[in-house]
Specification:
single chain; 7 helices
């Protein structure tokens, strides 16, 4: 079976077939659709970019290669060619032909083998990277799926049963593992500490409101998705700026004249905070007292409805430092040294050489000629010499 890729104008014979689609499995790439917010299109991309990038590292893809994001329950896929894959993020108990396979490790898959995934036990989103990457059509510079606008991915939607996912050329090996110290630590008690930066509209909330927000636990509502995370918690109090304002800002204290929203904005709609995540709107008429920095998005991506959030205020400098630290982890340095290499290092011994004697063969030949002439003069040229061991 082969399909035609209109973008690259070539016939692709490497692909996987979707047997079961999972709950919402979509094609994403990193960092997503950058530079299109002014056109009303969010970046999309993986919600847990930490796990996503490490999956690509495992199969020796570039970080920006497209892969699958599996939400809450994974898909069932059949391979039509040999492939190296890696699964990271949430534990969805992956099996290959019914046999369990590990996470955070590159795995060899043979043609006609079937990968099955179940409900997430720890975390919420798994990532499946394929050596060679997914070769779907790019839109505004990204293959990421933004299903509400019907763009990216395959036909602008999450994958569907019966579809085929085209893959690039495979060039990787199995057995590569991520160091434990490089993996994000998933919550096992349904509680998450989320970093936030004040602003841009923090002056619309009074000091009492700020203390309440940072000291309370907020529950993630079931009515949440890749557009926004709605939170349940105490009521907010507002500064005079929010209660005594011009009519153009609206009647509710949390209303403001339409403004641009940063990605990660904690949008206050009345008394309900909504964290605008990867597919969130680019502007609107609600205040944004806090913003979740990009380095903390992986926690949002791995949280499930009903989980509790406690917010911790950090400076912009700390947020940038966390981002830089995460970037420094998502590369080849996070690959565990193989056992074979360690054994070779232990068994191959190097001999210490105190000095090296260099022999000049030209001079040695001259010496031989002089010796032969001396032997001729003394009549010793016909002497036979026997050496005994």
């Amino acid at each position: 079976m082969a399909i035609y890729n209109r973008q690259n104008k070539e016939v692709l014979i490497n692909m996987v077939e979707v047997i079961k689609k999972g709950l919402e499995t979509s094609i994403q790439d990193y960092p997503g659709r950058i530079g299109s917010l002014n056109q009303g299109f969010p970046p999309s991309g993986p919600m847990d970019s930490w796990s996503f990038r490490l999956a690509n590292v495992l199969v020796e893809n570039k970080q920006e290669a497209a892969a699958l994001e599996c939400q809450f329950m994974g898909p069932c896929l059949k391979f039509n060619s040999n492939r190296i894959i890696a699964i990271t993020g949430a534990n969805m108990s992956p099996k290959l032909d019914g046999n369990p396979i590990p996470l955070w490790e590159s795995i060899e898959v043979k043609a006609d083998q079937v990968l099955e995934m179940e409900f997430a036990t720890i975390g919420a989103r798994s990532y499946i990277a394929f050596s060679g990457g997914i070769i779907s059509e790019s839109w505004l510079g990204s293959r990421s799926t933004f299903h509400k606008a019907g763009v990216g991915g395959i036909e602008g939607k999450a994958i569907q049963e019966g579809q085929v996912i085209p893959l690039g050329k495979s060039n990787s090996v199995a057995g590569r593992k991520i160091k434990n110290s490089s993996m994000p630590i998933m919550s096992t008690d349904k509680k998450w500490a989320i970093e936030v930066v004040r602003g841009p509209n923090d002056d619309w909330v009074d000091e009492k409101g700020h203390k309440m927000f940072l000291s309370s636990e907020w529950k993630l509502q079931a009515k949440s998705d890749r557009t926004g995370y709605r939170l349940d918690g105490p009521e907010w109090s507002f500064a005079e700026k929010a209660t005594r304002k011009g009519l153009e800002h609206g009647s509710n204290p949390s209303n403001i004249i339409d403004q641009g929203y940063p990605v990660g904005a904690i949008n206050l709609a009345g008394q309900t905070p909504i964290i605008l995540v990867n597919d969130g709107p680019s502007m609107g008429g609600f205040i944004v007292p806090y913003t979740v920095p990009s380095a903390s998005f992986w926690k949002l991506g791995q949280a499930k409805p009903g989980d509790g959030f406690n917010f911790r205020e950090v400076s912009i400098e700390v947020a940038q430092s966390l981002r830089n630290e995460q970037n420094s982890i998502c590369n080849e340095l996070s690959i565990e040294a193989s056992t074979e290499k360690n054994i070779l290092k232990e068994t191959v011994k190097t001999k210490k050489i105190d000095h090296i004697k260099v022999k000049d063969f030209g001079k040695e030949k001259e010496k031989d000629k002089i010796r032969d002439k001396l032997m001729e003069k003394k009549g010793l040229e016909k002497m036979k010499v026997r050496f005994f061991n």
